[in-house]
Amino acid sequence: MKKYLIVIILLAIQAVVLGQDTRRLMNLRGHWKFSIGDRPEWSKTNYDDSDWEEIYVPERWEREGFNGYDGFAWYRTKFSGKGLNKDRYHLISLGYIDDVDEVFINGVKIGFSGGFEPFYYTAWNAERVYMIPPEVLNYNGDNQIAVRVYDQGGEGGIYSGSVGILYLDDYSAKEQVFLQGVWKIKIDDDPDFAKVAYDDSNWQNVMVPSNWKTIGIFDLNDFAWYRKTFTLQPGTSTTDMTLIGGKIDDFDEIYINGVKIGETNDGKWLGSSRSFSELRVYNIPNGLLKPGKNVIAVRVEDIGDNGGIYEGPVVIMPTSEATRYARKSSWWR
């Protein structure tokens, strides 16, 4: 029953991305490199896949000559960054994947759906659309895509849907800083977690926005922290900016570069508290954001049932635009 619930949650998460105004920039349907098995170096940009098989994407791998195969397999292909606009945010659409996936661009993990063993759960009917951080892209040459797939049974692979590179039509990479994507999470509570220099490299990965149930956490009723390092692109303002932090179940404190910028906690018990339904909108003190690398940390207290940063948008933008963007309900519903 929990696995079916997780699939429903994943479908809702993808609606957050698909609800934004996206346009297709390039079509990636066609023959990709393919290998069964599982080796971490297959995510790397410089890995030599010249002797791999080729497989058509999208199509079930059983119909491409791998009938009866269950387990791990990897896909790889490249696309040129020369047609990308540095002022736009780009996404990758991979359609539907049976069952579980992790996606790497130029060796950096940018998204995942489902859960690998030993905490397996399928995401076979959740459409994959992942934001690509601008700092990951090579705008002057090739970009390497690597997709790790696990199929537990039946048919597997990148099997249907739209496959390509998209861009957000109305949003500029120089004006907004999208924070949706892969974050770090740890179930614990320590004030040091807010510090910029804290080492979170051994923390678990989590997609934001998503419910904790998508990573196998049920009814936590405790504290957890999120962390993410993000990059301000050249030309992005560091003053008069606001964080729209999505919706968080239940209470939160949010820190940027070690400084608390806001919190939401109505102090009520499960069943009467409405903090989980409030969109977090916090002004960022001038001088706090820095050109280049920055760190955001979110302390979350769950008082029962669901938990986590479960709805977007999660984005930093000019304060003058924050109200207008927050009112665009298609972003998070």
Major beta sheet, specifics? Answer: 6 strands, antiparallel
CATH superfamily of the largest domain: Galactose-binding domain-like
Question: What Rg, in angstroms, do the CA atoms define?
Answer: 20 Å
Query: How far is it from the N-terminal to the C-terminal residue, by CA?
Result: 24 Å
Structural class: mainly beta
Strand content: over 45%
Quick check: average pLDDT?
Answer: 90
Q: Kindly report the CATH topology of the largest domain.
A: Jelly Rolls
Give an account of the 3D structure.
With 333 residues, the chain is mainly beta. It folds into two domains: 2-171, Jelly Rolls, CATH 2.60.120; 177-331, Sandwich (Jelly Rolls). Helix content is 8%, strand content 46%. A hairpin with a 2-residue loop joins strand 16 (251-256) and strand 17 (259-264). The longest helix is centred in the first third of the chain and has 17 residues, at 2-18.
